[in-house]
Write a structure and sequence with these properties.
Its EC number is 2.7.1.24. The protein is of the alpha/beta class. Helix content is 54%, strand content 12%. 26% of the residues are buried.
Length: 204
């Protein structure tokens, strides 16, 4: 039977590091961020809903979603961000569920599903366990400022638009501390994989 492991965290806490770890070991990975882009491609119901709600100025000349413009709107207004998530919730939930079913057909021992809004939108109900990639908020803020070239206020707004990382840590079945080096994070992930899925670990 396939075990579905959910991965989440906060913005700039390092989910992509965990994704890379599992991908390098040929473990099936479903990335909600990729699916979120797919459900707002030109011609989709998702993009149409966004354009109606936020105006056609959030579209490029080619009719694609201008993510930077939309981000500047929703990350400065919590209610607008909640509205955006609500508009896409049905499409995303269905698409992620279908991706999991599709991956399960090949009967792997383990599937990894990366969903940023795991707890906020109740995706944890689709998972057998949830792993939170954790760093303290002060490190999260510093990394986000460096990664995206944001000032402290703008970075803080983006972090506050999500569930606090400490709350996610409390809810998690597994916590991986990504405060230190990539090698340190990999050792924690390796230890978890070896303990819970030795067959998968040996195959890598």
């Amino acid at each position: 039977m396939t075990f579905v492991l959910g991965i989440t965290g906060g913005i700039a806490t390092g989910k992509s590091t965990a994704d890379k770890f599992f991908s390098e070991r040929n473990i099936p990975l479903i990335d909600a961020d990729i699916i979120a882009r797919e459900v707002v491609e030109p011609g989709t119901a998702g993009l149409s809903k966004i354009a109606v709600e936020f105006g056609k100025e959030i579209l490029t000349e080619e009719g694609r979603l201008n993510r930077k413009k939309l981000g500047s709107i929703v990350f400065n207004d919590k209610k607008k961000l909640e509205r955006l998530n609500y508009l896409l919730k049905e499409e995303l939930f269905h698409a992620i569920g279908e991706k999991i079913k599709e991956a399960e057909k090949k009967k792997p021992l383990l599937i990894v599903v990366d969903v940023p809004l795991m707890y906020e939108e109740n995706y944890h109900q689709l998972m057998d366990a949830v792993m939170v990639i954790y760093v303290p908020e002060r490190i999260q803020l510093k990394r986000l400022m460096e990664r995206d070239g944001l000032n402290e206020e703008a970075a803080g707004q983006r972090i506050k638009s999500q569930m606090p990382i400490e709350e996610k840590k409390h809810l998690a079945d597994i916590v991986i501390d990504n405060s230190y080096s990539v090698e340190n994070t990999y050792r924690q992930l390796e230890s978890w994989l070896q303990e819970h899925f030795p067959e998968v670990w040996k195959g890598n």
